[in-house]
Amino acid sequence: xxxxxxxxxxxxxxxxxxxxxxxxxxxxxxxxxxxxxxxxxxxxxxxxxxxxxxxxxxxxxxxxxxxxxxxxxxxxxxxxxxxxxxxxxxxxxxxxxxxxxxxxxxxxxxxxxxxxxxxxxxxxxxxxxxxxxxxxxxxxxxxxxxxxxxxxxxxxxxxxxxxxxxxxxxxxxxxxxxxxxxxxxxxxxxxxxxxxxxxxxxxxxxxxxxxxxxxxxxxxxxxxxxxxxxxxxxxxxxxxxxxxxxxxxxxxxxxxxxxxxxxxxxxxxxxxxxxxxxxxxxxxxxxxxxxxxxxxxxxxxxxxxxxxxxxxxxxxxxxxxxxxxxxxxxxxxxxxxxxxxxxxxxxxxxxxxxxxxxxxxxxxxxxxxxxxxxxxxxxxxxxxxxxxxxxxxxxxxxxxxxxxxxxxxxxxxxxxxxxxxxxxxxxxxxxxxxx
Amino acid sequence: xxxxxxxxxxxxxxxxxxxxxxxxxxxxxxxxxxxxxxxxxxxxxxxxxxxxxxxxxxxxxxxxxxxxxxxxxxxxxxxxxxxxxxxxxxxxxxxxxxxxxxxxxxxxxxxxxxxxxxxxxxxxxxxxxxxxxxxxxxxxxxxxxxxxxxxxxxxxxxxxxxxxxxxxxxxxxxxxxxxxxxxxxxxxxxxxxxxxxxxxxxxxxxxxxxxxxxxxxxxxxxxxxxxxxxxxxxxxxxxxxxxxxxxxxxxxxxxxxxxxxxxxxxxxxxxxxxxxxxxxxxxxxxxxxxxxxxxxxxxxxxxxxxxxxxxxxxxxxxxxxxxxxxxxxxxxxxxxxxxxxxxxxxxxxxxxxxxxxxxxxxxxxxxxxxxxxxxxxxxxxxxxxxxxxxxxxxxxxxxxxxxxxxxxxxxxxxxxxxxxxxxxxxxxxxxxxxx
Amino acid sequence: xxxxxxxxxxxxxxxxxxxxxxxxxxxxxxxxxxxxxxxxxxxxxxxxxxxxxxxxxxxxxxxxxxxxxxxxxxxxxxxxxxxxxxxxxxxxxxxxxxxxxxxxxxxxxxxxxxxxxxxxxxxxxxxxxxxxxxxxxxxxxxxxxxxxxxxxxxxxxxxxxxxxxxxxxxxxxxxxxxxxxxxxxxxxxxxxxxxxxxxxxxxxxxxxxxxxxxxxxxxxxxxxxxxxxxxxxxxxxxxxxxxxxxxxxxxxxxxxxxxxxxxxxxxxxxxxxxxxxxxxxxxxxxxxxxxxxxxxxxxxxxxxxxxxxxxxxxxxxxxxxxxxxxxxxxxxxxxxxxxxxxxxxxxxxxxxxxxxxxxxxxxxxxxxxxxxxxxxxxxxxxxxxxxxxxxxxxxxxxxxxxxxxxxxxxxxxxxxxxxxxxxxxxxxxxxxxxx
Amino acid sequence: xxxxxxxxxxxxxxxxxxxxxxxxxxxxxxxxxxxxxxxxxxxxxxxxxxxxxxxxxxxxxxxxxxxxxxxxxxxxxxxxxxxxxxxxxxxxxxxxxxxxxxxxxxxxxxxxxxxxxxxxxxxxxxxxxxxxxxxxxxxxxxxxxxxxxxxxxxxxxxxxxxxxxxxxxxxxxxxxxxxxxxxxxxxxxxxxxxxxxxxxxxxxxxxxxxxxxxxxxxxxxxxxxxxxxxxxxxxxxxxxxxxxxxxxxxxxxxxxxxxxxxxxxxxxxxxxxxxxxxxxxxxxxxxxxxxxxxxxxxxxxxxxxxxxxxxxxxxxxxxxxxxxxxxxxxxxxxxxxxxxxxxxxxxxxxxxxxxxxxxxxxxxxxxxxxxxxxxxxxxxxxxxxxxxxxxxxxxxxxxxxxxxxxxxxxxxxxxxxxxxxxxxxxxxxxxxxxx
Lengths: 435, 435, 435, 435
Prior knowledge:
Four copies of one chain form a homotetramer.
Chain A: E1 3-6, E2 10-13, H1 21-25, H2 29-32, H3 54-75, H4 87-99, H5 109-114, H6 121-130, H7 135-143, H8 147-155, H9 162-168, H10 174-187, H11 196-201, E3 203-206, E4 216-220, H12 225-243, H13 246-267, H14 277-285, H15 290-294, H16 298-308, H17 314-324, E5 330-334, H18 341-357, H19 362-365, E6 367-373, E7 384-386, E8 392-393, H20 395-398, H21 400-405, E9 410-417, H22 422-431
Parallel strand pairs in A: 4-7
Antiparallel strand pairs in A: 1-2, 3-4, 5-9, 6-9, 7-8
């Protein structure tokens, strides 16, 4: 019997037999490892409360799944008998929700983006679930030999019931439902919240027009429209305020330069110590042994970074000293005409000149950071809104606000450079203005 | 100009010139180090959201001080001119609030309690502030050569204005005001909140009866009584629910056994690697160089602990494996007659027998944990409640609830033992009941 | 299908077939009448947000009942088959919860207390439910001829299943659960909230020791103790801050004087117009026809009161003018020795003298108001706390705070008098101090 | 000294000398009258919590003004000395904020819209402030003979300092800031909230390009953009969810039919009793004596409506019976092609036919309701966003979301008809579909 107090969802319990898989999985070392991986990487450098971990998000996602399942059962009487939510399907889904982020590396997305040619976190998640040596695999297998495979499929968004797959990975999946609320709670960005109760209550089944089509997750058109709207807007606000925050992006860029430098050194035979085997293998070969990857977490990385401050390589030591002491890079956001791609090379060249003139290696000290998101992309596996007469409409057709957002792209473009170049750069820009 | 979004207090700003000391101090490495020290040690093992750091608490405490100062200025017209809140005093106070926890070691109180003969965190704080080699000292000294000394005094609760000292260290100090709200927000224990606005607004000056007595911080008797009551109850709830939670206490006890074992090994010449110099010095000699102490943080400790899982000493490796994988010790709370001290030796002996019979070293695997607090101790430097006619009364005289709590002691006593002894122990207790 | 947005509970729905009785009952005129009766009488004179009605409370109480029933069903597997929550019992209980306050007069408790020899609101509720002429009766009867009787019994706390009766009327009944949260939300008194989720989740069945005893509602001893504690404290705070607030009590006293005066006039044959028949009958005879009683609501009363401001009787017109324009009576709270009953006559006589000296009728302009509550009375139908080993203990035995509150009496005693007597009275008291 | 607990803003105080005008004005009968006028008319028929009054909104608006003034004083150092916020200006502004809605009739906007040829509530507000016979006027005049006139000007959005005028009446005025948060709190529509702290903190002065232009209220471009965005979206959500809710609109339409019928009866010499003089005069002549207007409030109206249920005129009595018992009119929202104006006459004629066929007077029983709003109209007195380099930009140029909303029109169009026509109408529409 497991009951937890969660600051986001309040009382969280996994008491039902079909959900007891969560407390079991919690005993696996690969799950406990998520306690040592911050959900938002270095975002706490900008939002001092954002120290929450992937572990709390995993619990939250599993909890949201129990609520989705409760709702789907309220309405699955509409479906053919063989498409309903059996106990087994419920268990599979909550396990997939709980494990979906298992493969994150230290600092979550940061590590992944700083090692772009390595396997993504989803690949690692699947490896962990399918590898017979892991605790997670053993626990799943002991319950049902087919479970590891089914959970891995679900995590990749595949399931015979399309609507169940989309609760794990889709426009309104349990992952998003939890991380938006969680990141909002811990950063203190109140705009990021939305009404989860109402959203869950608005779930319905929609039926694709094609004959024989499987039911899809849809939203009640009368009660649910504001729920979608506020969900989409909450996500937009979190991107604008948190995920694309200048200090978040600058520190991510900063961190990627450190790994880039280490890769350069390793490839040139320069030893870097301490060097966790997982990082070394990834940077040298683009992949790593699962065991070594799992040994990586924020503590290991941060502890190594503390040592690298005294590395012999001046670039590596300087970059680590800056990040460790939170001397972040500065940014200058580009608006209007300056955001044309053809303008980028020019601006970047100017920046690189200034860096070189200051004795800095331009490859590691200046750059251009572009952050892109489509706040409401309803083109692929589109979500429908169902009206009382069973008519399905696209949200963008009936919503004042979504009609104005659908398919639109949000882009934030910034120059990145060290503080010491700032005045110099601004002076230059004033004399030869950007736009 | 510094504006932050804090999940506890909302908008936090240190814009006024007298508070600009906070953003300056934030650049010191000793302050940035607090980002790597969790406020509640291992409590996130029980409350998955409780990963917040001393850094966010430092900002919160400084913010609460700016609010206290705002209130004291509203009312200091009642005081002689030389006792009012000058710009300098405001700056000193906010600096003291911001720096008061600078000296915490890894996992905050846990480390301190696990090294009982080492200097407490307040001692380290004062050392950091007064040591000319630290960034904090330099920043303070550059503003005013007397500032490090004055801040260190304030942190220790000493100041010519008694009421100012008690804002840093007293019944309602800014430390408590922030940590109660913060710990409540991050654990999700809603009972721990109270109405800070109302509390601040209720602050008044009380005048001791002795001639020439200095004004003290007091509370308005009409508006402020519910504010005190809820503050005291919030604190009581947090102790009951969080600080004295069985998993918190068990993991603290667990951690202290690990350091105890390392000390034993070091004193017997058994090498333990890796061994951060600060920990080694403290365990060997009871003290450490400031530089080595400051190199300690959660990442360093947690990373070392990961390595110690494969230490040669079987007790150390086993204890570290258990903590790392969250295989915590179990507890059994004692009620009624079992809580008599004379009963303790008997119970403990029984436990030690069972441990030995299972091949476990009783010194490291079983114990008795007693947690004690006085929820409302108003005897030392008592807080007064001031009524419209300027009559001062003790809160316990006019409050229904505080009258029933004042001076009472809350004690939680528990046996601590590993899971594998549980059934065995319960069977034994049933056949020879505890009480 | 009924889904509502409630500011207290969020999404409220009565979709299940067994709860569809609520939307049906909502169509009855006697239920709609509750929209015109403020939950807290004149408390909005002290707390400007407290304009919420009995109607919203009725919905809230019914909603809490649906949650209680959900919980009881999770655990009723422990009970003999014939003691479980059938669909019929669920429907009866939610109807009783929804209708329990149907009999309130204008301004809720105020009217009842100002007409002390009239039937209480529970009596009126039962009359409405049982009277074949009401819409409520018809709706109940049409569903099941025995339903009016069963609902009336439940509202009076009687049911073959003791635990079900106590959900409607007991220490933790749905009435209290809703009104505490609701009154806290609308007054803005944050202290009045508690964790309803946790409380509901903590419900268990307790078994009286007597052989053949029926199961009672109890609380889980491990998870539920803080839930009880905070519930009891929330209630205590609401009494201290709201229900016993000086302006609430003074306006209640004020209102009772107006009805007292009207009764005096009516009994002496002095016509008062307009005179709603329900009020006239109650004041003349101590009872009224149901039809006339149901015609009374806040609008009718308030509209009459506006007219009475120009009544010929100078006392009636003056009292009404004062209340209408919120010129409330003042209060002076008595502490310590002044609260001895023997002291009351003396103080009251002094007040009456001052009133007469100012040309005021002492019977209508001065008085002594005593407000009494026992914050945690666990003596009658005591609530038990159940520990994992099925041992039942009284909450006061295991709770630090409840042990100090159980059976204690909270009393607030105040002199009541018009503003114009204030200075005079204070002067007198200073020269001959009260205590 | 006045301190209040407000459920929306928490602690509200008007302690500063310059704000003591609020507690004084609170004693005026015209202000107390606002306690008897619901902020949202009949919206509580759809949202059971929405019983809050204009009185609580008046306090809230005055409180927000004190916060605006606090912020303006932080930044008015940038302005010439004679444009700063003096004590007198602060007092004037807070008085205007407090009194700005004084002229509302019963049920607020509903009454105004149901008497379209009568004076609007702003006109009545100004009359009350300027009329020497009112309590409000006397209180203002006693403080300063020019005050009534200055307050009346401010309420009408006129003041020598343009930015001060726009705090009372503009895109971000204190009225909107309070009512959005307040209506959201009392309806429970969480989407309607926004971050007032951040908004206030983002206020800056903008300078129009024209030479000699006065400073305008503007928003900080770095910190303030999300504050504007969420404010605009909160307003949009409140319109969609609450103000344009089908039951709100249907009951407003319903109420307007009742007054229309009474006007018809009065003009044809048919007596209607009871008939408050204010209503009679307005319906007969289009205006009323101030004294009679002030005697109108929700209680008077609701009490009259109860009596009109038994009026001889069958239309009046039926409409009143329906509204009193909440038998509301139904609506059918029109989408797509059906919203073309040329389609309206056709639809309406169809509805009128159905009504007549059922023996109902089409003028009173069917209609077409069109609700229109421009969620972000920044064309008139446009608000600017100021960037660090002092460049002013229009919000729609720099905001992803506002750029997509600016100038767009939200329209909701619905047919209105009694329940009994519903099936009949739907059948007809199905056979001859609307679009």
